[in-house]
UniProtKB/TrEMBL annotation, chain A:
Gene name for this UniProt entry: purS
Keywords: ATP-binding, Cytoplasm, Ligase, Nucleotide-binding, Purine biosynthesis
Keyword flag Iron: no
Function: Part of the phosphoribosylformylglycinamidine synthase complex involved in the purines biosynthetic pathway. Catalyzes the ATP-dependent conversion of formylglycinamide ribonucleotide (FGAR) and glutamine to yield formylglycinamidine ribonucleotide (FGAM) and glutamate. The FGAM synthase complex is composed of three subunits. PurQ produces an ammonia molecule by converting glutamine to glutamate. PurL transfers the ammonia molecule to FGAR to form FGAM in an ATP-dependent manner.
UniProt record similarity statement: Belongs to the PurS family.
Pfam entry (one): PurS
Key word Calcium present: no
Reactions catalysed: N(2)-formyl-N(1)-(5-phospho-beta-D-ribosyl)glycinamide + L-glutamine + ATP + H2O = 2-formamido-N(1)-(5-O-phospho-beta-D-ribosyl)acetamidine + L-glutamate + ADP + phosphate + H(+)
Protein name: Phosphoribosylformylglycinamidine synthase subunit PurS
Primary location group: cytoplasm
The organism's place on the tree of life at top rank: Bacteria
From TrEMBL, chain B:
Organism: Planococcus versutus
Localization, UniProt: Cytoplasm
UniProt pathway: Purine metabolism; IMP biosynthesis via de novo pathway; 5-amino-1-(5-phospho-D-ribosyl)imidazole from N(2)-formyl-N(1)-(5-phospho-D-ribosyl)glycinamide: step 1/2
Free-text function comment from the UniProt entry: Part of the phosphoribosylformylglycinamidine synthase complex involved in the purines biosynthetic pathway. Catalyzes the ATP-dependent conversion of formylglycinamide ribonucleotide (FGAR) and glutamine to yield formylglycinamidine ribonucleotide (FGAM) and glutamate. The FGAM synthase complex is composed of three subunits. PurQ produces an ammonia molecule by converting glutamine to glutamate. PurL transfers the ammonia molecule to FGAR to form FGAM in an ATP-dependent manner.
One record GO biological process: 'de novo' IMP biosynthetic process
One Gene Ontology term, aspect cellular component: cytoplasm
UniProt-annotated catalytic positions: C86 (nucleophile), H194, E196
The name this protein goes by in its record: Phosphoribosylformylglycinamidine synthase subunit PurQ
Upper taxonomic lineage: Bacteria, Bacillati, Bacillota, Bacilli, Bacillales
Listed CDD domains: GATase1_FGAR_AT
SUPFAM superfamilies noted in UniProt: Class I glutamine amidotransferase-like
Coiled coil residues, start to end: none
Amino acid sequence: MKKVKVYVTLRESVLDPQGSAVMGSLHKMGYDEVADVRIGKYLELVIEDSERNVDSLVNELCHRLLANTVIEDYRYEIEEVVSQ
Amino acid sequence: MKFAVIVFPGSNCDLDMYHAVKDELGEEAEYVWHDSKDLSSYDGILLPGGFSYGDYLRCGAIAQFSGVMDEVRKAAEAGKPVLGICNGFQILTEAGLLPGVLLRNKNLKFMCRTVGLKVENNNTLFTNEYEQGEEIQIPIAHGEGNYYCDDATYNHLKENNQIVFTYADDFNGSRNNIAGIINERGNVLGMMPHPERAVSELIGGKDGLALFRSIVKQWRESHVSHA
C-alpha cells in the first residue's frame, strides 16, 4: 500500500482572497516580514497495490476530480506504507 | 413543454425552479433525482442552486460525476435547453459543459441581495423576451460567484457573443462583470443570479420570468415549424 499526499494550490495567476485576508491579519499582528500567503488543500490518499502505475493513477485522479486545472496546480508525494 | 428539475443531495432552489415553470408559466415540471438514468422524455433541463454534495472539494466538483450528468450531457448534445443557476452554473463549469470556473467572491463574503443585470445578448433561446442591453433586477445569493477564465477563453466568449448577462456593478470580482454565459451552440446557459426567485411581484419582482418565457417561446416556435 502507498500513502499519497496531494497538495492542491491556486495557480499563481489566480487571486487568492483567503490568503490575502490571512496575510492582512498577520500584518496587523506585527509580522510584516510575511510577504505572501496562499491557501490550498491537502489530501491524503491510501492506495492499494495493483497493476496500475501509481503516478499515472494519481495524475488521473487529480485531473478528473481533485484539482480544477483551470485555476489550480497540484503536486504530490508518495510514501510506502509499511503494514503493521 | 416538460422540464426536469434535477435534485442533487444539497440542492435547495429546486422548489423555486419548479414553482417558476409550473405555477407561474403553467408548463409541466418534474423533480428528477440525481441518479436518474433517463432524461429523454424532458424538453428542458434545469439545474438548481444549492450546495450539491455540501460543496466539498470545490462547489459543483462532486456533482459532475452524478449518474444523471451523463444524461444532462446527452440532452445538451441533442440541443435541448439546459439551464444551470448558481450551483447549477458551478456544476456546468466543473462538468466542462461551460468554460471557466467560479471562485470565492473577492471580498470573501456570502452575498445575498438584488442586483442589476445587463442583458448582453438577447439573441438566445434564454433571453429572446428581453431587450438587447436591458437592465433587469435579479437576486443573487452566493459565496463563490466570482467568474474566472483565462484571456483566450474570455476572448473566445466575447467573439462568439457567449456572454449573456453582466453585472451592472462589480461586487464579487467576476471577470469583466460576467454573470452568465452560454455554450457555443447556445443551448446551455449558466448564471449565478437567480431568475427563479424573481417571477412575481409578490416576492419582490418578476424580471426573471421572461427568461423562462423565452425558453418556452423558442421551444413552441421550433416545434410548430417542424410539425
